[in-house]
Amino acid sequence: LELGIEGNVTDKLYVGANLFYMWFNNELVLNGEYGMNGLPCHENALKSYRTGAEIVSKYSLFKKLELSANLSLSKNKVKTKTFGFKNHILSPQTTANVDIIWNDSNWNIGINANYHSSMYVDMLNDYSVPYFFTINCYSTINLSDNIELGLRLNNITSRVNYNTGMIGANNEMLYIQNAPINFNISLKYMF
Fold it and tell me: What are the per-10-residue average pLDDT scores of the chain (191 residues)?
């Protein structure tokens, strides 16, 4: 179920907001454990739901400069025979993005800040991955009507972030780290 509203509040401000509720029957969920072969184990959920709110906004600071932001707040619960009623694993309760973008007729450049709250990696909700925060830059230029060149710099501060993790054989927390500063280049041909 989803209920939302969106539209221009002024000629410079756009806002969208929605509430959502999803429930699942007979969902197969990760339980945070790993089998003898190293593969993640799953379990059938007796009950499972996700509910929350999302807000999106865009504001034109100047003719070519735009500020955009989105925020998602959620509650993600699952009930299983083995673990009872717990938080879903690998589901952050808060995510947020803020972008400042300069748009010209043939090119744009932007900077993005991205935040994910901590999230559990086991169904007992004893172990979690800490929150992570990155700052990224991007730019595209139209070389012609059909060709676009893009560049993206990720994690420009080289901050150590963990995007996921798992419980090791000795009940130790093992983190999977995001890459330090990195980039990608794209070339698009549109026809």
Answer: 97 97 90 79 91 98 95 95 90 97 94 97 92 96 95 95 85 89 96 89
pLDDT tens digits for range 145-191:
999 999 999 999 999 999 888 887 788 888 989 999 999 999 999 98
Question: Could you tell me if 32 and 167 are in contact, meaning their C-beta atoms sit under 8 angstroms apart?
Answer: yes
Per the CB < 8 A criterion, the answer to whether 90 and 30 are in contact is: yes
Residues 145, 28: Cα–Cα separation, whole Å = 46
Q: By CB neighbour count within 10 A (0-12 exposed, 13-18 middle, 19+ buried), where does 103 fall?
A: middle
Q: Write 151-154 long-range contacts (CB < 8 A, 24+).
A: 151/183, 151/184, 151/185, 151/186, 152/183, 152/184, 152/185, 152/186, 153/181, 153/182, 153/183, 154/179, 154/181, 154/182, 154/183, 154/184
Beta-bridge partner residues of 17: 5, 55
Distances (CA, A) of 32 to 94, 167, 176: 20, 7, 14
For residue 32, give both structure tokens. Answer: 């945070």
Q: What are phi and psi of 4, to 5 degrees?
A: -150, 170
